[in-house]
User: What shape does this take?
Amino acid sequence: MILLNLLDIIGILLVLVIAAAGLTWIERRLLGFWQDRRGPNRVGPFGSLQVLADMLKILFKQDWVPPFADRALFVLAPAMVMATALLAFAVVPVTPSIGIVGNLNIGVLFFLAVTSLSVYGVVLAGWSSNNKFSLLGGMRATAQLVSYEVFMGLSLIGVVMLAGSFSLADIVRAQRHVWFILPQFPGFLLFLIAGIAETHRLPFDLPEGENELGAGFHTEYSGMKFGMFFIGEYVGILVIAAMTTILFLGGWQGPMLPPLLWFLGKTAVLVAFFILLRAALPRPRYDQLMALGWKLMLPLSLLNIAVTGAIMLAWPGG
Amino acid sequence: MFSTLQTLWLTFLHLFHRSETVQYPEQKPYLAPRYRGRIVLTRDPDGAERCVSCYLCAVACPVACISLQKAEEAGRWYPEYFRINFSRCIFCGFCEEACPTNAIQLTPDFEMCEYERPNLVYEKEDLLINGTGKYPGYNFYRVSGLAIPGKDKGEAEHERPPVDIHSLLP
Assistant: This one.
């Protein structure tokens, strides 16, 4: 039994990491199409082995720790980013039968807690690099993640209220008749925006801001440590897309097709949307980002909770 | 808010646009006849070297990548060696503009990669082509007043015979 569980875990981890690596290729091709280019199309069929080529290249790069860096933290930081991103996937119920602890009764809280931990990886990377740009990136990451974490949690309260459970599997089952994206549309938008900020993807990639910080918190990283940040970021995208699918798009539920395909399809659409955001939107200024978070998103999420609660009180069981 | 959504939609529509990419090694781009690529040394219509080693190209070259040495044979000047270091050349075409005899010309070809840098230094035999390039009928020694074996003063095209200055005396 334990062995079977272990195989399950290893299988999901492998699929997740490979999918995250494959995502780099998908992102580059999609970005190419959206910019009237072709993207990488030379290595293997349609360029799909580009991932392998990049992997080989990055593995053979010199794995260099700058002499001025705080060595222990410098090595620890990428592992933390990667580990927290992977940990968050533990509570994702892919289908009723696939998933590690999809039935965990505090699944939503676990997810929020673990994704918040990923900020430590970023901050420690910025701090231990002992470099002004990296530190600035790390500070931005802290402020951004802390402020977006607040309403990320609050935006989910509506879903939890409707489903009456913190367990992600129960939340999916509660969407048998109608996906929560309909009754909880503001919550969906808020969660999506918070999720993008949480994975510090464009347009919220201020911790990395190439033009002003020169890659920000991972300026000093090279080789596979940089690769871990990269893969961690893509795992983060997958996790946020999977969570959005589960919380708002009915998870594995859907007619005709097997549950696994429904889950993967919805997640893939969301991931493509994330990439579209990157292709289309410019990065906001830093104060605009913080103002958006505290002055617009936080009140909206509170309003969403209040309205949802009021409606649930007015029509109990409705 | 609306403009953000519009941006997203317009960007999405680019999925159905034709790609601008030219798939290079299989699909060659069009190069205009006056494209400034690999430099060649051309010959007269009768097959002799056009270059008269005037050094103007070497002087005009902003990166000093041209090196040559004058030699003389039977009244004709020619380069003893003529060397272009293409690892320095910036393909500005100043040498072509400076050349008084249309000898040095740039061609529509840029595929000259090498694995070793010294291989990018082209010697005279690499540069010389068996042709006249962009100026088919031009022959410097046929239009200049210089005397060379087989063509005395006054025998060039559109040239009157030299005046005997002694006959001008009062």
